[in-house]
Structures are given as structure tokens and as C-alpha cells.
Amino acid sequence: MIDLYYWTTPNGHKITVFLEEAGLDYRIIPVDIGKGEQFKPDFLKISPNNRMPAIVDHDPAEAGAPVSVFESGAILLYLAEKTGTFIPGDLRGRVEVLQWLFWQMGGLGPMAGQNHHFALYAPEKIPYAIERYVKETSRLHAVLDKRLADREFIAGEYSIADMAAYPWVVPWERQGQRLDDTPNLKRWFETIGARPAVRRAYERAKDINTQQVVSEEAKKVLFGQDGGTVRR
Q1: What's the pLDDT tens digit per position in 16-45?
Q2: Which terminus of the chain is more exposed, N or C, with fewer CB under 10 A?
């Protein structure tokens, strides 16, 4: 059994998609980030960066004590290695998956996240910031579109690289993007979205978070943290 500390964000969706695809037994433990539940001491023992998702694997491959993992990319890699699925066993195939997994973690996720913040949540509209991140999201979509020109999935076979990237493309309209501008990306996006496991993962999200609107109080919790928050 795997305990998944989860909220309905793109990074959270990555892990439910993997767990559904792999057919692993898991239990969702909601971490309502708008209420500050990510700062609870018990959660910080698992995720010291006070971010979700995080997991606790009560049946690790080498037996012994449970294993906890934070950071969504690290979780995907851990689960892929645990199950021997969604990552190639050969050197070159593994490198292909890992470099695109890190591309998402270092590029697509952070840039799309800033896109969301300045377009939707910032207390004042800053045109330069909005334009900056809309353009960078567009650039990254174009990179992925070019990559997908001669292959069905990002690293050839369906893998954790696809699971990592897909949730960050889901809010493309809010990101100021047009999928029609990137036909290879659009084809890939529709293919992933039609997978039964992906549909199940997103259905589970509806049961966890029934209110998608971010309140002003939640914004203070989400965006008002600094070093003092950690030191407390």
C-alpha cells in the first residue's frame, strides 16, 4: 500500500496517473494547500519543502521500514523503478526518459506555474510578467511539438516523461496557448487524455477538491510564505 499525500494540482495529477496506470494499491491523504495543511509537522517529516505530492511506500522493494519520497519527479522515478514499468531498462532509452522528465521539472512546470500566477492570482496585473511567461510557455510547447513530430510519445514509448508533462498542458487555455498552433502536441495531448487510467486519475480529483476557486484567504497561504515560514 502506498499513501499519497495529494492535492488537485498538476504535480499531484502526475502521481495519480502513474498509480492508476500501474494498478498499484494506494490511499489518498488530501493535503489542502489553500488551508495550509502542507505546513503541519507530520507532513513536513515526509515533505520538508512543504510541497505536495509526497508518498510513503509501506511495501518497498527491499523490504524493511517504509520509504517516503517528496518531489513529483523523484516520486515518478521511484515508482517506475519499483514496478519496472514506464521507464526503459536500457541505457539510451532511460536517458531519453530522464532528460525529458527533468525538462518538465526544470522548465515546463515552473514556467507554466509562473504563467498561472501572474495571469490569474497576482494582486496586480503586470503586463511584462504576463507576457514573459505566456511567451515562455509557448516556446516550451513548440519544443515539445517538434519533439513529437516523429514519435507517438515523448521518449518513444509511453513513459513517466509523458505523465510528468501532460498535467501541465491540461490548463493550456488559462496559459494563453492555442493547441492548434502545435498539431503534434495536440495529437499527443488527446492521446494521453483518452487513456482510461488518465481519466480515472482526473475523476478522483473531482472527489477530493469540489471547489476550484482560490479564495483570497487561500492566496495568502499559498503566496505569502518566506524564510520565516520555514524557520517557525
Answers
A1: 999 999 999 999 999 999 898 999 999 999
A2: C
17 neighbors 166 (Cβ within 8 angstroms): yes
CA distance 184 to 5: 33
Domains of the chain, earliest start first: 2-85+198-231 (3.40.30.10), 91-194 (1.20.1050.10)
Nearest in space to 66 (alpha carbons), one of 95, 88, 45, 50: 45
Task: Report d(CA 35, CA 127) in Å as an integer.
Answer: 29
Helix, strand, coil % over all residues of the chain, rounded to 5: 60, 10, 30
* Side-by-side strand order, sheet with 26-30: 26-30, 2-6, 54-57, 67-70
Tens of pLDDT, residues 168-204 = 999 999 999 999 999 999 999 999 999 999 999 999 9
Of the candidates 97, 100, 84, 101, the one whose C-alpha atom is nearest the C-alpha of residue 24 is: 84
